[in-house]
## 1
Amino acid sequence: MNSIEKVLWILNRLGEEPYELNLTTLANEMNTVKSGVHKTLGIMMKQGFIIQNPETKKYSVGPALYRLGKVYDNRVGIWGITKPIIMEVAEITQETISIGIREGDHAILAYKIDSTLPVRYVEDIGIKYPMNGSAIGKVLAAYHDTERVKELLNATKFIKHTPNSIVEPEAILQEYQKIRDQGYAISDEERFLESFGIAVPIMNDHKNVWSCLCITGPKVRFTSEKINSWIQLLKSKANEISILLA
């Protein structure tokens, strides 16, 4: 098989039971050496087409496939599962509610329901968020592979968009630890002035995080009382989504 055939074979194979396979099994079924398959898997992981369970070392299809398939969106995928839930959250809060996913090393806005209020927070589907200055970007980075995150932080020169922007790698790592400890991320005017966001992780059945539930809007509407209430609401709804996805 050539390189393209290998990629397509792997994607098709991981779309069949048991939906997770390790390197040895894939190489044996492809009747090829493990080194070549490992290289192909590495490229596919980098692009977000597959993911690897850090505990079992098995590979499965990744979040990049969600964004490529409108059919998936319209049928049984995460949007079909989450839409009623985020519509409920949007109705309760009256703010913009979104689902962020991680594709490789990038945090992506996958789905959203915009606030109907005259002044609201609006961004385009598919936008990539920085890992230091957005609720979605920070929460997905906080639960990403630690060593890979350190590599990215050391290789990236962050822009201080506002006085609240966190740009030093050590400070960002401390922020990630805080996020993991409390179970949510807050972005308080870190990308844009007068904006506020809260994101909570959505875990799959392996307790891995590659998606999150987020609320964003003008900071003036995010009172202390609402922030505390909405954090609990998001956590509850993210848990519902996790159960449905499992």
## 2
Amino acid sequence: TDAKGSKAMVILPYMDNLNLLSKYLQQLVMESLGKEFDRDGNQVHQGITVYGNKGSTDQHAYVQQLRDGINNFFVTFIEVRKSRSKDSIEVDPGFNTGDYLGGFLRGTRSALADAGRKSMTISIPVVDAFYLGSLISLFERSVSYYAALININAYHQPGVEAGKKAATQFLEILSKTEKFLTDHLGENSSVSQVAESIKESEEVSFHALHHLAANRKNISLDIGQTPQDDKFVKN
């Protein structure tokens, strides 16, 4: 990633039981490494974009771009040696579902390598509590080490806190908006009227009013020819 997050991290686990792994790693990596400042207070804008899904089926959604599109990623294949806890189903004479799963992984990896696209493969024998825990532990420690190498605090998350504060502010705006409609019970009110009264922007007031109209039985919406013409009333 050039220590600057210049390449995205693509996670392709080839096992149904690991279909949520890419979502977990997306949260782990992006929340931990997405930082504006380093430990010395320098503005660095660090981070690694993470995406992916179950390789056996969902790879078809993006492998075309991975092979032939912009080369701004690295792939991590997750291989499980034993594909099923029970016997695999025979698909063709002499070949079962596990054989095809292994073929898809090797074929995709080979196709990417032929196009000069970088990848690595992590193999585990089976999916059980021990090996799944080991896999998660590996990524968690890798994130911590990477954060130390690029001099950022992986455990400081002001962006998450900012989102929570913004959510609280919107709830306060909803309360002010509903109070305005209550004070003008039975009267049609426009977005601009509400915005001026509660001292918020028309955009914020527009979304607050539409949210209330969609989620409060006693607040209705009369859609106008333009958004500015929409009327809201509480009965």
## 3
Amino acid sequence: MSSSQAKPSYHHGDLRRSIVAAGLARIRAKGVSGLSLRQLADELGVSTPALYHHFRNKHALLMGLGEAAMAEFVVVMQAAIAHDASAESFALAYVGFARHEPALYDLIFGSLLWRDSHAEAFQAAARAHVRAISHHVQALQNRGELPTNVPALRVVQVAWASLHGLCRMYNDGLAFTPEAIEDIAKTAMTLMHRALDKVSA
């Protein structure tokens, strides 16, 4: 076999990272239904058993990809908060991720991994992110930028429910334009802030 035909050699950790990167790329291009361990193995130039050494089946791979996709989402949200701590910035970053990464958004916020009792690691990572956002909201409340009469976690849950519904409608093709979804997201945050002010009055 010539050197050009030889299969690439991976260290243990390198192959796992390569599998995850290739898996995310395939989901971006073809969705979860287009994910195939055999095709990933062919793409990476390794045997299918080599992939099974890291992920015992497609479902295990999806859990690993879900954790990686959630990590990407967290980076986007943290960057938005670091740049501008307002609820509007949070909302725009959230819907922006859903718009630009619809397949990854479906993976991390869809039922596939959330209804799976074996996806504890993924679910724990997601809940940790929600707690981090709750701490951010608590900090805004402590600074007097948000009313304190509603617990921070409940504020996050209401905002999340509103934005998730909006993103699902957009990604499912329910008529919104990119400009409209951003304006609706900002309006939702404004209305929520007014409602909190009214409750605290």
## 4
Amino acid sequence: MIFRKLLILLLFTYIPLLFAQEQKVYFEDALSQHLRKFNIKSDLAIKNQMPNEVDSLFDTLIKTHLRNTYISDLKFKKISGGILHTEHINKPFLLITKNAAIIQTKEEIKTINNIANEYIGKVDIIILYWSKRDIAKKKARHFNKNVTVVYADERHNKFNQALSAFKHSFGAPAGFYINQYKQISDIDRKFFLKNVNTSTKDHFTEKAHKGIFQLLLSQNDTAQYKITKD
């Protein structure tokens, strides 16, 4: 009788804990809780001319609050027509957000194309332009067939409110590394290649490969992948 009571007590104690552990935390919810504090601290660091402190604050935000959060099903309008649902993507993907008004260098476009070719079939490369379709379509001409180009015009973004979190969090350009379970693995809030000197290009390429490598760590066949420079 005593054993039975203890068993019931244990069940009532641990079952809620198990459900709590399985509860998903979504990216937009984590942002709403922690982004404001990050912005206040980073603004203060910028005011005090401490750019390295901003990077440190951002790294802490990612590691402590945003990594492994889940994304809601995002719906993108494809340049080629139709809708791309993230819930239908069955592999890791890199979502690169871009402001169409900012000019991308030829070297950056070339690097993105090379990355898409290297990881074809393993990681999807998706570029999201915050613009109208005709503007995004012109931008899409520079990318090869292994890069999926989509667009979002916020003035008509009534069906996908969760998408707004990706623009109003860290702006554009930014890179969101998302694993096959639809969890944020990492975020690069400076996903662009401004200068074309060798060291800058190598750093940009290495960061992208490192982010993708982290995505592939969750898969069984990652042994064949190495972080390499282009």
